[in-house]
Amino acid sequence: MATETLSIGKALNTGLRRALEQDSKVVIMGEDVGKLGGVFRITDGLQKDFGDQRVIDTPLAESGIIGTAVGLAIRGYRPVCEIQFDGFVYPAYDQIVSQVAKMHYRSRGKLNIPMVIRIPFGGGIGAVEHHSESPEAYFAHTAGLKVVSCATPQDAYVMIQQAIASDDPVVFLEPKRRYWEKGPVELDAPLSEAYPLHAARVVRPGTDATVLAYGPMVRTCLDAATAAAEDGRELEVIDLRTLSPLDLTPVYDSVRRTGRCVVVHEAPGNLGLGSEIAARVTEECFYSLESPVLRVTGYDIPYPASRVEEEFLPDLDRVLDGVDRTFGW
Fold first, then answer.
1. Which of 104, 130, 131, 198 is catalytic?
2. Is the pTM of this model over 0.90?
3. pLDDT tens-digit readout, 6-64
4. What is the largest CA-CA distance in the chain?
5. pLDDT band at 2 (very low <50, low <70, confident <90, very high)
6. 131 a catalytic residue
7. Mean per-residue pLDDT over the chain, rounded
8. Contact 181, 7 (CB under 8 A)
């Protein structure tokens, strides 16, 4: 089986290329995705190889991108929309919530909207205002949308293809500050045998506490687990991967063994994914818990200026502090 070492960005590019090759109804559209190859070069070379009728440079109008994609999806195409930066998605929010999420339900199942909305999300790249946000809770709260986030090159390669093949609209969150991190990717593995799109995964086994993360925070939590092991504490790290629907069965199994749980994400804590997960874990695992479920998150402020963003983002020390607090009860 062919295995290559790819960055997350290159794995996404390769997955998009594979989807374009296998289905002539797949089209990619967005600002600068064609000739430029996207600001992060995720679509680099695709317009050259597949033409400007399938890799389409759009006007700078996010609601227009999504609205056009809805029409294409209704007519049997599988559009993949790139939102250039997370903070640019809000002009399209009405389209996503009022049309994309509701069309299948509103038509009593007669219409599918098989489209993917790719959003580079999160901080850590020193960007200016509106370029480093975490809008996942808006979409995970919206019935009718599927929301996923990759954290490794292998998942990036497989999950983007699975999302495109899905008949449901998928918001696909890409950890922009991890685009250049590399790892092994199995290129020839059949998609039918791949790990399911809407399933969480244990990425590091442990016995002392369960740490949950997704997207850019998975690497941070793995680093924290490595540091904790030096002090004799084994953390089990779970990559949630799917935010809607949440797959918490592996989480419940883990917490029943460890008795402790810490949820980590970049987004602000107030009404974030961590709140919902903490509530569900408490309901399902109450008699197994040795301490309350704790959250390590961004602060409840607008995303700060780039010079101080490292003070905002959860880091290894804050994750370890959260774990330490679970042992203080």
1. 131
2. yes
3. 999 999 999 999 999 999 999 999 999 999 999 999 999 999 999 999 999 999 999 99
4. 61
5. confident
6. yes
7. 97
8. yes
